[in-house]
């Protein structure tokens, strides 16, 4: 056995030196997943419906975009039924926030939307938005807020908006220097 391996090595080494192409034989292997139980027609139908629902949630879409004027009105007249969420990181938020906004960083948003209402409120200091409530996301320039809207949609939220101008637009229009 050792001699055979040495002989094969010598053949491959000679072929490599002579620039000849050597193709080792490959055996095709097929592996069947027999550990999965066979689904009944009813189970298969339910599984197909769940996958279709997931596909609908994950399809490409764009959150409706709100203007500065609309967000300004929302910040002046806050409501328990609507949320203005800043998805910037805490070190960015120290430069300021839109009045009446709350902070949930994008880096923790997905996991936070899966928390129980009590844990969410304990962590962030305000009630967790319900899936049908209006939620407006903003960040520094509008890119992360679009991602946040996508994350919220994939978590079942339906009334989602994006303030595309975000903090840079807000500070420009309010006459405050953007940081």
From TrEMBL:
Organism placement in taxonomy: Eukaryota, Fungi, Dikarya, Basidiomycota, Agaricomycotina
Annotated protein name in UniProt: Endoplasmic reticulum protein
């Amino acid at each position: 056995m050792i001699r055979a391996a040495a002989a094969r090595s010598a053949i491959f080494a000679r072929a490599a030196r002579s620039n000849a192409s050597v193709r080792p034989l490959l055996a095709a292997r097929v592996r069947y997943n027999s550990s999965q139980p066979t689904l009944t027609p009813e189970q298969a139908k339910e599984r197909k419906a769940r996958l279709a629902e997931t596909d609908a949630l994950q399809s490409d879409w764009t959150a409706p975009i709100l203007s500065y004027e609309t967000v300004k009105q929302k910040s002046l007249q806050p409501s328990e039924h609507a949320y203005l969420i800043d998805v910037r990181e805490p070190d960015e938020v120290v430069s300021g926030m839109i009045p009446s906004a709350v902070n949930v960083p994008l880096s923790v948003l997905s996991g936070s939307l899966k928390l129980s209402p009590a844990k969410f409120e304990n962590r962030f200091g305000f009630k967790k938005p319900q899936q049908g409530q209006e939620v407006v996301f903003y960040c520094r320039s509008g890119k992360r807020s679009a991602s946040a809207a996508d994350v919220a949609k994939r978590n079942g939220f339906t009334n989602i908006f994006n303030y595309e101008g975000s903090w840079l637009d807000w500070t420009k229009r309010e006459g405050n220097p953007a940081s």
